[in-house]
Amino acid sequence: MVDIGYKNFINEKKIKKIMKFEKTKTKWLRKEALVGNTLIDCTQGRKTNSLIIMKSGHVILSSLKAESLIKRVKSIRA
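and the corresponding structure tokens:
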């Protein structure tokens, strides 16, 4: 399990992709997930800095930077 901020944990084996939230594509993915009821907001009201796509198709928003999340996942997998 990897901490994605504010005591929210996800299974690192089910992560498909971690992306920065700055790109237009990620904002489009967020909008589509919201419409499709597959969006999980783990930002606790803070600014969204990264978007995590799960193998199940769920999209998770995190306030942690994408680089920070990638380091956490790599440290667990190592």
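(Above: one complete record from the training split.) The mean pLDDT is 94.
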